[in-house]
């Protein structure tokens, strides 16, 4: 029945539309489709500068850190715009793309008239109808597979997992189909699908609802992964992910949905392969993403008062890493601290450590330090839950030891 629905929708839409890295030459296997789009848009770099449509973002926009600035968020906040909560920024980006391209559709549990478990799809069913905003049964493996099939036929589906932990039920579809079909079909099929949803350690959500699954999906060939941390980059990454011809997993954090920020009124699209310079510094490079960005910035205030000048980078692109931005920072500070909420064993930090050691080992004056969550199921008790996650005081101590 669902297949028939999407077959009919596809027909109506068709009628309406007549081994080692060299830091100096990083080859990117993803993101080509964004530069091939003919729609008019601008690409906003992490430092706040705008790249015009004529540039078409044909390659990764790279930049070395040369100037002092508070953050890209502060840069955007000083410009005219409108204030949005993070979930509203995701919703706005999604709505704009659905307006722009009738191939874009949404599916998942309660995404329709209920508006999604975190209200990211609020109001979309009323505006676009039940065929483009499809409520599904509680069957993640089935509707994720349906989304992949829809992408193969020319649609651009966004699949919402009510919780990222639930998408483990669809791991076979994401791995064997979503990540591989473009290759195994000899390029006959593109899989322009976005898989998104909330995850991370919340406030006493229990072990099964507090999982960080970045490391689970990181090893799948053909998958691109990004993590949003502000309303500004949430909207920009959402739009870029929808326009990409590659399958993209967008990680959102349950504790960041109500974060408020002023974002530009004009349309912007961020790069899926670029890190964000949050705070330029000289003494140590701190690499982080998602919720840990705010723990790091809290620690940075203490570090500055102690006489340290940390450089903070939101890596944002979890696969592939932006080795240009990271490499430039390592060459300047010669010390690296990685702060993540992912588990220590086999996590994003482990992969990032390996990449830095492989490419920039000669520039390091000290071993890389990685602060990760403990390898235990997240406890329900609030006090124990905090103990499993990296806290700002630990970041301060780690920097002090690194800089001795």
Description:
Helix 6 (140-152) packs parallel to helix 7. The chain has 15 helices and 16 strands. The chain has helices spanning 2-16, 32-36, 72-77, 86-100, 124-128, 140-152, 171-178, 181-184, 214-218, 231-243, 292-305, 323-333, 348-360, 382-388, 392-402, and strands spanning 43-44, 50-51, 81-85, 104-108, 133-135, 156-160, 194-199, 224-227, 248-253, 260-264, 276-279, 284-288, 310-314, 317-319, 336-343, 369-373. The longest helix is centred in the first third of the chain and has 15 residues, at 2-16. The model is unreliable at 1-77 (pLDDT under 50). It is of the alpha/beta class and 404 residues long. The strands form four sheets. It has a seven-stranded mixed sheet with strand order 5-4-6-7-9-8-14, sandwiched between helices. Strands 11-13-12-15-16 form a five-stranded mixed sheet, with helices on both faces. The protein has a two-stranded antiparallel ribbon with strand order 1-2. It folds into two domains: 36-48 and 61-264, Rossmann fold, CATH 3.40.50.970; 276-402, 3-Layer(aba) Sandwich (Rossmann fold), CATH 3.40.50.920. The protein is globular, with a radius of gyration of 20 Å.
């Amino acid at each position: 029945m669902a297949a028939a629905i999407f077959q009919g929708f596809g027909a109506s839409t068709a009628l309406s539309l007549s081994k080692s890295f060299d830091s100096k030459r990083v080859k990117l296997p993803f993101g080509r489709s964004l530069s091939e789009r003919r729609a008019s848009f601008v690409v906003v770099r992490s430092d706040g500068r705008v790249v015009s449509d004529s540039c078409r973002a044909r390659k990764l926009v790279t930049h070395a850190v040369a100037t002092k600035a508070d953050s890209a968020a502060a840069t955007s906040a000083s410009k005219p715009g409108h204030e949005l909560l993070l979930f509203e920024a995701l919703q706005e980006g999604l709505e704009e793309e659905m307006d722009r391209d009738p191939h874009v559709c949404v599916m998942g549990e309660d995404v329709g008239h209920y508006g999604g478990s975190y209200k990211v799809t609020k109001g979309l069913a009323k505006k676009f109808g039940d065929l483009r905003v499809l409520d599904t049964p509680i069957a993640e493996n089935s509707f994720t597979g349906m989304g992949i099939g829809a992408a193969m036929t020319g649609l651009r589906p966004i699949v919402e997992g009510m919780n990222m932990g639930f998408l483990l039920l669809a791991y076979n579809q994401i791995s064997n189909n979503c990540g591989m079909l473009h290759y195994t079909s000899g390029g006959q099929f593109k899989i322009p699908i976005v898989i998104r949803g909330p995850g991370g350690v919340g406030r006493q959500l229990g072990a099964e609802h507090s999982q960080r699954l970045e490391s689970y999906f990181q090893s799948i060939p053909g998958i691109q992964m990004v993590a949003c941390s502000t309303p500004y980059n949430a909207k920009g990454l959402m739009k870029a992910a929808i326009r990409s011809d590659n399958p993209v997993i967008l990680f959102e954090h349950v504790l960041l949905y109500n974060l408020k920020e002023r974002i530009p009124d004009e349309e912007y699209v961020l790069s899926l392969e670029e890190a964000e310079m949050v705070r330029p510094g000289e003494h140590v490079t701190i690499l982080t993403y998602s919720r840990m960005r705010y723990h790091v910035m809290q620690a940075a205030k203490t570090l500055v008062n102690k006489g340290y000048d940390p450089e903070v980078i939101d890596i944002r692109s979890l696969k592939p890493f932006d080795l240009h931005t990271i490499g430039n920072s390592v060459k300047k500070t010669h010390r690296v601290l990685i702060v993540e909420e992912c588990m220590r064993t086999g996590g994003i930090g482990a992969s990032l450590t390996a990449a830095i050691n492989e490419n920039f080992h000669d520039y390091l004056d000290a071993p890389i330090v990685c602060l990760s969550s403990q390898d235990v199921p997240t406890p329900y008790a609030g006090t124990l839950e905090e103990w499993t996650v990296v806290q700002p005081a630990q970041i301060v101590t780690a920097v002090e030891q690194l800089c001795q």
